[in-house]
Amino acid sequence: MARKKIALIGAGNIGGTLAHLAAQKELGDVVLFDIVEGVPQGKALDLQQCGPVEGFDAKVTGTNDYKDIAGADVIIVTAGVPRKPGMSRDDLLGINLKVMKAVGEGIKANAPDAFVICITNPLDAMVWALREFSGLPHNKVVGMAGVLDSARFSTFLAEEFGVSVRDVSSFVLGGHGDTMVPVAEYSTIKGIPIPDLIKLGRSTQERIDAIVKRTAVGGGEIVGLLGTSAFYAPAASAIAMAESYLGDQKRILPSAAYVDGKYGLDGLYVGVPVVIGAGGVEEIVEITLDDTAKAGLQVSIDAVKELLVACKGIDPSLA
Ligand code: APR
């Protein structure tokens, strides 16, 4: 069987980390694409030379030519500009929309059968635009946000309860912005829901509320410290999604997926739990939400819709 091919569009902080993880895990041969000449080639060569040390056997190449992504099984898109301190994800809209147009056309022309994972922000708008520009089926284009946001939530919950992160399972819905909805009711410590643990006196509602707030602005916390956006956990999260697709694992992963008919939506990309398998996004899992979570989700949905209106204003071909 031929090796799988993973194409990474954008060879910056996240792109380089993705390439390293994909090669280490031998998901397939890796092609790093970027518009800047020399950067993808240099990073690829550096990463290729990790192989003999780390013992992985995967070819890593760099390119500035979209033709080299031909036949890719998975494409992960990080092309664009990241946040700087003081910027919201939405501030990136105008610049990154143009980038999505170029990337979408490149994918359409060269790798229309790929499973595409978008990471570029503002995520819910960019994954929608990328799907529009690429013309790929909705179930083959998905955004990475919920896995990362849940990982942040889980990290803070593990700290709060003093337990291994392995025993924490958490849930974040909605758009990948400050309006995201971390759902404590569906988050558990080894199967025990957070509200039950509060009743048992293991934490308080106030402390959990603070964790929920910290999760929602978790990306901003890192931008403030680092001067640019996070890259290790975003890359790890997208790799989990790629593995679920390549291995037909059918994992339930919160992702920015196209929802049409569930959650009261008629065709919108927003963060919901989905099943990812060989068919791409195979199912949107609809869960029952209490009134608070429902209201939170609605705020988040409205924020995403506003971004789409702004996108259509910038590029009338999307209207
Ligand atoms: N085509 C391909 N690559 C591009 C294009 C384009 N049209 N425009 C910019 N790039 C490349 C840049 O040259 C750079 O190498 O995208 C890369 C982005 O890398 P970084 O600036 O290091 O950004 P990164 O931290 O990887 O984040 C990328 O993901 O999480 C989001 O908000 C983040 O939107 C940002 C994206």
UniProtKB/TrEMBL annotation:
<feature type="domain" description="Lactate/malate dehydrogenase N-terminal">
    <location>
        <begin position="5"/>
        <end position="143"/>
    </location>
</feature>
<dbReference type="InterPro" id="IPR015955">
    <property type="entry name" value="Lactate_DH/Glyco_Ohase_4_C"/>
</dbReference>
<feature type="binding site">
    <location>
        <position position="34"/>
    </location>
    <ligand>
        <name>NAD(+)</name>
    </ligand>
</feature>
<keyword id="KW-0520">NAD</keyword>
<comment type="function">
    <text>Catalyzes the reversible oxidation of malate to oxaloacetate.</text>
</comment>
<dbReference type="Pfam" id="PF02866">
    <property type="entry name" value="Ldh_1_C"/>
</dbReference>
<feature type="domain" description="Lactate/malate dehydrogenase C-terminal">
    <location>
        <begin position="148"/>
        <end position="306"/>
    </location>
</feature>
<feature type="binding site">
    <location>
        <position position="152"/>
    </location>
    <ligand>
        <name>substrate</name>
    </ligand>
</feature>
<dbReference type="InterPro" id="IPR022383">
    <property type="entry name" value="Lactate/malate_DH_C"/>
</dbReference>
<feature type="binding site">
    <location>
        <position position="121"/>
    </location>
    <ligand>
        <name>substrate</name>
    </ligand>
</feature>
<dbReference type="InterPro" id="IPR036291">
    <property type="entry name" value="NAD(P)-bd_dom_sf"/>
</dbReference>
<feature type="binding site">
    <location>
        <position position="96"/>
    </location>
    <ligand>
        <name>NAD(+)</name>
    </ligand>
</feature>
<dbReference type="Pfam" id="PF00056">
    <property type="entry name" value="Ldh_1_N"/>
</dbReference>
<dbReference type="GO" id="GO:0030060">
    <property type="term" value="F:L-malate dehydrogenase (NAD+) activity"/>
</dbReference>
<dbReference type="InterPro" id="IPR001557">
    <property type="entry name" value="L-lactate/malate_DH"/>
</dbReference>
<feature type="binding site">
    <location>
        <position position="83"/>
    </location>
    <ligand>
        <name>substrate</name>
    </ligand>
</feature>
<feature type="active site" description="Proton acceptor">
    <location>
        <position position="176"/>
    </location>
</feature>
<dbReference type="InterPro" id="IPR001236">
    <property type="entry name" value="Lactate/malate_DH_N"/>
</dbReference>
<feature type="binding site">
    <location>
        <position position="89"/>
    </location>
    <ligand>
        <name>substrate</name>
    </ligand>
</feature>
<feature type="binding site">
    <location>
        <begin position="10"/>
        <end position="15"/>
    </location>
    <ligand>
        <name>NAD(+)</name>
    </ligand>
</feature>
<keyword id="KW-0816">Tricarboxylic acid cycle</keyword>
<protein>
    <recommendedName>
        <fullName>Malate dehydrogenase</fullName>
        <ecNumber>1.1.1.37</ecNumber>
    </recommendedName>
</protein>
<keyword id="KW-0560">Oxidoreductase</keyword>
<feature type="binding site">
    <location>
        <begin position="119"/>
        <end position="121"/>
    </location>
    <ligand>
        <name>NAD(+)</name>
    </ligand>
</feature>
<dbReference type="InterPro" id="IPR011275">
    <property type="entry name" value="Malate_DH_type3"/>
</dbReference>
<comment type="similarity">
    <text>Belongs to the LDH/MDH superfamily. MDH type 3 family.</text>
</comment>
